[in-house]
């Protein structure tokens, strides 16, 4: 789990802050006997006015299955393609197969998925940068992993995974725990990268590894 401060700093809750579906009804807020959850209300968009029609259309087993199909297919077809235009193309193509679900729900699923890959991309690139710097120090300058880790930290790199760096360095004091996750991941995915590769070639392999 990522610390709340890190999530907030990197905009994890931004879409909720700007487009939050629920709100506190100002009329209900005047009633002291109500709990906060009882003051929550949905905006009147007209979507819920005909509840029976909405319920029958949006909550059928078929529509739920299509929503799951939409997200799973979109994820599988764009797993290694972190380009928004590619995601949009596949989303439109898959949506045409989902004929028993509201387009607003498909749009919500698409928006959430798009935001998730933007967030993941930030973390992937950040971890790749850290592991690449460690690899250069070990492969090119023949440092030990801990020395390389310490030097990367001393550089003061603005990294999202600074908590992992600090925990890995502190792990020396808890030797009985065994190697930390960064050590294990480096040994499994990065350590075998050929030291004779150019920086560009090595970085590409590190990016694929993370």
UniProtKB/TrEMBL annotation:
Domain of life: Eukaryota
Protein name: Uncharacterized protein
């Amino acid at each position: 789990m990522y610390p709340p401060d890190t999530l907030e700093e990197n905009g994890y809750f931004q879409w909720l802050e700007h487009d939050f579906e629920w709100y506190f009804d100002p009329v209900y807020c005047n009633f002291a006997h109500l709990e906060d959850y009882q003051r929550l209300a949905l905006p009147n968009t007209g979507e819920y006015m005909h509840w029976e029609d909405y319920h029958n259309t949006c909550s059928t087993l078929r529509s739920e299955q299509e929503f799951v199909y939409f997200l799973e297919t979109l994820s599988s077809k764009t797993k290694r393609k972190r380009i928004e235009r590619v995601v949009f193309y596949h989303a439109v193509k898959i949506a045409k197969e989902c004929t028993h679900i509201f387009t607003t729900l498909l749009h919500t699923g698409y928006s959430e998925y798009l935001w998730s890959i933007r967030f993941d991309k930030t973390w992937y690139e950040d971890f790749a940068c850290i592991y690449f710097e460690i690899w250069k120090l070990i492969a090119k300058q023949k440092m030990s992993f801990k020395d390389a880790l310490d030097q990367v930290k001393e550089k003061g790199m603005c990294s999202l995974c600074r908590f992992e760096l600090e925990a890995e360095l502190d792990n020396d004091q808890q030797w009985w725990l065994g190697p930390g996750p960064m050590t294990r991941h480096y040994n499994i995915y990065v350590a075998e990268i050929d030291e004779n590769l150019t920086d560009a070639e090595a970085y590409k392999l590190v990016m694929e590894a993370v």
